[in-house]
Amino acid sequence: MKGFDVTVKDVSRAYGSFKALDDVSIEIHKGEFFSLLGPSGCGKTTLLRIIAGFDSPDVGTVLLDGKDILPLPPDRRQVNTVFQNYALFPHLSVYENVAFPLRLKKIQPTKLDTKVREYLHLVQLDAHIDKKPSMLSGGQKQRVAIARALINEPNVLLLDEPLSALDAKLRQNLLVELDHLHDQIGITFIYVTHDQSEALSVSDRIAVMNQGKVLQVGTPYEIYESPATDFVARFIGETNLFPATVLSCNPYKEEYIVSLDIPELGTSIMVTDYDPLQVGQKVSFTIRPEKIKITTDEPRRVGKDINLFSGIVEEPIYSGFQSKYYVSLSNGTVLKIIQQHNNYMDDGPDIAWKDNVFVSWSAEDGYIVEVVDS
Amino acid sequence: MNVKLTTVRERRLGITYSSPMGIWLTVFFMVPLLIIIAYSFLTKGLYGGVEFPITFDAYLQMANPNFMRVLLRTVWVTTLATALTIALALPCGYAMARSKHQTLWLGMVIVPFWTNSLIRIYAWIAILSSEGFLNEMLKALGFIKESLPLIYNQGAVTAVLIYMYIPFAILPLFTTIDKFDFGLLEAARDLGATKPQAIFKVLMPNIRSGIITSVIFTFIPIFGAYTVPLLVGGKDSYMIGNIIVDQVTKTRNWPLASAFSLIITLISTLGVLWMMTSTARERARIKQQPLKDREDTLGPSHNGLTSAGRVS
């Protein structure tokens, strides 16, 4: 693995009374594709700017390959940044933009030329060498920015929402390209985004941030399936989230069968958990919409581990490969349910508006987000 | 059809609206200019004024080494004063553009215009003269015993000229720098540029039009300066402006005065042309619309990317 590891230790940064970063510690491994994910204002960009050297923390340290980089100015750190608005130099051609870092280093002209062409080829811009940035499309501009940031051969590449200014289809393509680049070059990527699907699809690990704090660090799978807090559960993907109280907790094989009282569902439900819980403990319960089954007929055999409710479809949203239903239960609580359409449908989905339906999920598919006693 | 009618009407309205300016420029600019051109080719009248026949005498008289010395001095003083003005105005404009209190700073740049320029020049005389504020203060503080020759020399002329014209340089620089994306400076630093490198390689080329405007706004009026060299300059600080006034009021050689005036006009015109061509070039560069996003998608294969070879 090439690239450097980055250690952020106890970093805080306040602007007046606003805490942009509140005691943040993250360890980013060598060669990792690491994402900082969170809503705008969560501090992810501030953290990136601190690593790049455009901002400095009030307290804390940032280590690059074990060495403190905070005393170094941005031009002496072995990191480079791809900026959100590209930040291409408008007075220079594509070629000169990419050559800019090398010209500063006074590299021999023939070497410089070979290298600039190599990197422009890497991002497939060979045909646009002499154009000015204003003549390029958004995606091309971002490619120039990436080539320009990589040509210095940094050990860490920082990407500040690099795709946010592009349209959805293009974003997908460039995201795949970025992933390819990462595999090819092998340096550490730190990717800042507010788009959870972007982060989930390419990251080795993700740090979910909110209000200046890191809420959870984990693989995309861990973050999606076992969110550490309510916020993470809500922010990553869609979910149904309810406050609940533990009624009972009994060991079963290697797990525990937990019975939860959920006032919003008007009843208690069953869910499995890996850790024992105290009776009476307040927790949050989450069930992802795609894990709930929806049928028009009542399921015939209902096991003890199945939670079953009936309701009315208030809002069916058909989007080709799937449908999303908002199902209102008898007490008025609305559940979000996503059904994949895996088979050919002659007459469209068989569930329609105002249909009476049965919704159910297995105890294993729910998840308990532990809540610190308040 | 409707569209066509509107455009015709709009065109007519455009002529109507612009006519006051057209008349103004013709009466008060074009006609005097033509008169000056005509005068410069006529013979000097005995008590001022001009007479026939048409001659090139005025232009031949300009070849006088005394005039040449003044002309060269004017070019030198103007160049020096303009360069210093821009050098001072650039950091001012930059600081104003980055400041949170832009309106306050703008106000402070404009405030001097509330006072007549002659009064401001006399204020400088009060500051710089041998019994003036600056000399007296330096004496009181014990730095000097004898008054320093701060006034009636080339240095005083240059300093007061800079003072008089620096607002004209700050304002266009401020507006251009204000539009500059300071993120580009961060990008430059990120890519390995030191602070001065970022300023000279990224900021300066991108505010070129503002710099050109300020150069013209200061160079042209300084080139024709008359009161400043007259009031704070010495015998060796005469500039073209002073020669023109002398030729009109003392020597009464109107054709020569006209010829010198035309030199100033010529240099000003060249400056404005330079500004216009460079801004036109800039606009042409911006006008080239970005291509549609058609070249963004790479199609089904990413072969180009993966076959690009290892980059280490």
Please characterize this protein's 3D structure.
The complex is a heterodimer of chains A (374) and B (312). Chain A has 374 residues and is α+β, with helices and mostly antiparallel strands. Helices cover 22% and strands 37% of the residues of chain A. Chain A folds into two domains: 229 residues, Rossmann fold; 133 residues, Nucleic acid-binding proteins (OB fold (Dihydrolipoamide Acetyltransferase, E2P), Beta Barrel). Chain A is built from eight helices and 20 strands. In chain A, the strands form four sheets. Chain A has a six-stranded mixed beta sheet, sandwiched between helices. The two termini of chain A are 44 Å apart. The relative contact order of chain A is 0.12. Chain B has one domain: MetI-like (MetI-like fold, Orthogonal Bundle). Helix content of chain B is 71%, strand content 1%. Chain B has 14 helices and two strands. In chain B, strands 1-2 form a two-stranded antiparallel ribbon. The longest helix of chain B has 39 residues. Chain B is globular.
Strand-helix topology:
The complex is a heterodimer of chains A (374) and B (312).
Chain A: E1 6-15, E2 18-28, E3 33-37, H1 44-52, E4 59-64, E5 67-68, E6 79-82, H2 94-104, H3 109-122, H4 138-150, E7 156-160, H5 168-185, E8 188-193, H6 196-202, E9 205-210, E10 213-218, H7 220-225, H8 230-235, E11 240-252, E12 255-262, E13 267-273, E14 282-287, E15 293-295, E16 306-318, E17 322-329, E18 334-340, E19 356-362, E20 367-370
Parallel strand pairs in A: 3-8, 3-9, 6-7, 7-8
Antiparallel strand pairs in A: 1-2, 1-4, 4-5, 9-10, 11-12, 11-14, 12-13, 14-20, 15-19, 16-17, 16-19, 17-18
Helix pairs in contact in A: 2-3, 2-4
Chain B: H1 2-40, E1 43-44, E2 50-51, H2 57-61, H3 65-98, H4 102-110, H5 117-128, H6 133-140, H7 154-179, H8 183-190, H9 195-206, H10 208-223, H11 227-232, H12 240-249, H13 254-287, H14 303-306
Antiparallel strand pairs in B: 1-2
Helix pairs in contact in B: 1-13, 3-7, 3-10, 7-10, 8-9, 10-13, 12-13
